[in-house]
Design goal:
Elements (H helix, E strand, L loop, with lengths): L2 H17 L6 E7 H9 L4 H8 L5 E11 L1 H6 L1 H16 L3 E6 L1 E4 L6 E4 L2 H11 L6 E5 L6 H9 L3 E6 L5 H6 L2 E4 L21 E10 L4 E7 L18 E7 L14 E13 L2 E11 L2
Parallel strand pairs: 1-2, 1-6, 2-3, 6-7, 7-8
Antiparallel strand pairs: 4-5, 9-10, 9-12, 10-11, 12-13
């Protein structure tokens, strides 16, 4: 090949390398911290959340955590005040901005009981619409079905909306977003009692039972093996799939679990990965989340 061919070949190589480089897309994260904590997300690791949201090389644009606080209690309870301040400090280490919203209190005229209310959902909605212009992906952590209209508005602008939820997530919200994933199934997002790293033999992982034969008494569990893009490649036989599949016998499910609900994409299980002569199998299968 002559000089011109060498130049052309070099150009092709450079072009291919540039197309494989880090994505220039931007991502924003919005977390209703109290809602998440009260619905199964206690102990959420915000560093892992940022890693998941930024998968595929996305650059963070906005990282907002909304926290409802009781100002009256902060004046009277030093431990509560310190805990709130400590939470904000830790979030700053991961470059999240904590937006504190004061709990509003009023007395019910009929029962004379004190009712508390927060406006986190309203403030988060406004910020999602005003602060994400030019952002490609929005990751939302909440279970509130009232957020469906804002999801629709963001999608109308051509933006992708992903939802991470734990328990009590509104079905309407699940259906509306571009991607819903259970926070239980994201490696490392929540604490898990296991001396082994997620996905290794002996470790405890979380996933769903996507196939089950009631006549044969066994099925297959799918779990996310590692955080990366291409979550749409759910067939674990594909080399590029981030998922893995393991065999699960009915005898390994907890005794009081009704297997007639299987298979299901809504039920999340925790199980131990054991290797035998047939490969990886799931043992000590325990239900941890259901609609």
């Amino acid at each position: 090949m002559g000089p011109d061919g060498d130049i052309e070949e070099s150009y092709i190589i450079i072009f291919k390398e540039s197309t494989m480089s880090t994505s220039h897309q931007r991502v924003s994260v919005f977390v209703d911290a109290v809602n998440v904590t009260l619905n199964g997300g206690f102990g959420l690791r915000y560093d892992i959340l940022r890693k998941f949201a930024s998968r595929g090389g996305c650059a963070p644009c906005r990282l907002n955590v909304y926290l409802a606080v009781d100002r009256d209690r902060m004046r009277e309870d030093a431990a509560y005040k310190q805990k709130t301040a400590r939470f904000s400090e830790v979030m700053r280490d991961f470059e999240y901005k904590v937006i504190e919203k004061n709990l509003q209190k009023y007395t019910d005229p009929e029962t004379e009981s004190v009712v508390t209310k927060n406006t986190v959902d309203i403030d988060m909605t406004v910020d999602m619409l005003t602060q994400t212009v030019g952002c490609d992906r929005i990751v939302l952590l909440s279970s509130d079905g009232g957020l469906v209209p804002v999801v629709q508005a963001l999608q109308a602008r051509g933006q992708r909306v992903e939802l991470i939820g734990f328990d009590n997530v509104a079905q309407a919200l699940k259906r509306e977003v571009d991607l819903f994933i259970s926070g239980y199934s994201i490696p490392g997002l929540l604490p898990i009692k296991s001396p082994y790293e997620w996905g290794t033999v002996g470790s405890r992982v979380r996933g769903m039972c996507y196939d089950f034969s009631h006549s044969d008494g066994y099925g297959f569990m799918r779990y996310l093996n590692k955080i990366e893009d291409r979550l749409w490649i759910t067939d674990s036989r594909a080399d590029e799939s981030p998922f893995r599949t393991v065999f699960a016998h009915v005898s390994q499910f907890e005794a009081d679990f009704d297997t007639s609900f299987l298979p299901s994409r809504d039920l999340i299980f925790e199980f131990t990965l054991i290797k035998n002569d047939k490969g990886l199998v799931a043992e000590e299968v325990v239900l941890i989340s259901a609609p």
